[in-house]
Specification:
- The structure is a homodimer of 300-residue chains.
- Chain A has 300 residues and is mainly α.
- Chain A has helices spanning 8-29, 34-44, 51-62, 71-89, 105-108, 111-129, 137-154, 159-168, 176-201, 206-233, 236-239, 245-248, 254-258, 260-277, 286-297, and strands at 98-99, 102-103.
- Chain A has a single domain (8-132, 140-297), classed as Farnesyl Diphosphate Synthase (Orthogonal Bundle), CATH 1.10.600.10.
- In chain A, α3 packs across α9 (176-201) and α7 (137-154) packs antiparallel against α9.
- Chain A has a two-stranded antiparallel sheet with strand order 1-2.
- Chain A is built from 15 helices and two strands.
- At the A-B interface, α2, α6, α7 and α8 of A face α2, α6, α7 and α8 of B.
């Protein structure tokens, strides 16, 4: 792959601003119960990196589409990601009190509110994914396809299945293959769906979508490996959460199976695979190239 | 309204069999994680009356459509209803150990599994609502509209908002108006959406859809009032759950505000409103007529 000259920091910050603005507008305009709305906004605006929505927008741009046209879908993906964090943090699940350096939703509100705020974010995601007022049959078909792709990725054979697997695997030694599968479900599936969504709505052709799926698969794994590595060697102040928690819970992770050094090499290898998959694209895919490198080099 | 001669028992039993068969097939064919799938099936097949899917199918028939064509949507509505029960029963919410005479999901499995099974049912509902393989733009537009109608009804300005309101109202005396609003959100919104869904997918015209919405609104309230009444005077063995729990929790209910006698009169009045809204329909609406009467006369 080629060295690219791309100002990712400014790209991310521009996109994050657009996403944050739209997220707040959507929540306010669809507001129902005040307490649920407050909790939804609290978790949604708690400083997420907006990886999924940015990937969705960058994928649309890579295939020659418009980032603005996929913004609603990008926001839906962030809502689904945020709902999954709220539910994962619950006492019955991972029982985490801090998330991105702030009290988790059930700590700031209460458990019932956190369950319902998560449910509401998931539901709102599908509400906005189906909110097009287009009368064009092709447009309606594309959005319906996106609803389907996202629902499969988020469901029991995707993200939810991965989370269940993660819970029942605590304290159990699992193989490298099982670990990859679990992570693919828990994190990778929604990341892939984010990229597919951008490519579908951006009118990508079959070859483009296939290459982007390879990119997504490898980037997703690299993302998860880096998460595991940061849980070993990260700085809690930079991360905004405690480190060493995986080891304390006897969770099987990439560094616990491979050692930290090999685990970092593997993340780099997956990133290189991701970058190679973008070779068919011109510089419209530079944001995706820069994001793949950022994901593996990040400190939080 | 006219006295009708309609064998509701056989109609319901036929529809329930069709719905139950399809629900099991959907869950098995979309199965992801085994434990989540088991918990989904456990709660989904725990003896629900299938009120929402039957209403959806009956509404399609009322406007001259086919019950078979809306079966997938009917199943999605039952999944959303079931997910809401699983989450409502959680210790952090209503903390119920029995539901329809059987251990609740978190009692039979555990809390983490119950949270995830609920999440998975909600997600699967949207997955199957978007699973049409039609290439017809009009069909895609109808299903996308149904996704939207159902998401709004299930979200924080619908069912979830009602559940939050219900929780914060425990032990607080609320007015008749607030009670109606809460129930409309908690139960009525999804019942209305069930009927709208049937009417939309059955190609009902605007007048038909409007009359069915009036039917749905009144039937939904009558359903809730009857639920409240049964919590006072029902037979726990027939109901499959404890009675007197609303009073013990100091919940404001129709009988607590009006007394049992007036509360039963109100349920009857709402049912009559529902029946009158069906006057524009011929005997294709007989199932809906019979269901409205059944809802207010039921013992469980």
């Amino acid at each position: 792959m080629n060295k690219i000259d791309f100002d990712l920091k400014s790209y991310l910050s521009k996109k994050q601003n657009i996403i944050n603005g739209r997220l707040v507008r959507i929540i306010r305009s669809c507001a129902g119960n005040d307490r649920v709305t407050d909790a939804m906004l609290y978790s949604l605006m708690a400083g997420g990196k907006r990886v999924r929505p940015v990937l969705c927008m960058a994928a649309a741009e890579a295939v020659g589409g418009s980032a603005q046209d996929v913004l609603t879908a990008a926001c839906a993906l962030e809502m689904i990601h945020t709902y999954s964090l709220i539910h994962d943090d619950l006492p019955a699940m991972d029982d985490d009190e801090l998330r991105r350096g702030k009290p988790t939703c059930h700590t700031a509100f209460d458990e019932a509110t956190a369950v319902l705020a998560g449910d509401a974010l998931l539901t709102l995601a599908f509400q906005i994914l189906s909110s097009t007022d287009s009368t064009d049959g092709n447009t309606n078909a594309k959005w319906l396809r996106v609803v389907h792709v996202i629902a499969i990725a988020a469901g029991s054979s995707g993200m939810i299945g991965g989370q269940m697997q993660d819970i029942v695997s605590e304290g159990v030694r699992i193989s490298m293959q099982e670990l990859e599968k679990m992570h693919h479900l828990k994190t990778g599936a929604l990341i892939e769906a984010s990229i597919s969504t951008g490519a579908i709505l951006g009118d990508g052709n079959a070859t483009q979508i296939k290459q982007l799926e390879i990119y997504a698969k490898n980037t997703g794994i690299a993302f998860q490996i880096t998460d595991d590595n940061l849980n070993v060697e990260g700085d809690p102040d930079v991360l905004g959460k405690a480190v060493g928690t995986d080891e304390a819970r006897e969770k099987t992770t990439y560094p616990s199976l491979l050692g930290l050094k090999k685990s970092k090499e593997l993340a780099r290898e997956k990133t290189n695979n991701a970058l190679r998959a973008l070779d068919i694209f011109d510089n419209s895919a530079d944001p995706l190239r820069a994001i793949a490198s950022y994901i593996v080099e990040r400190k939080r």
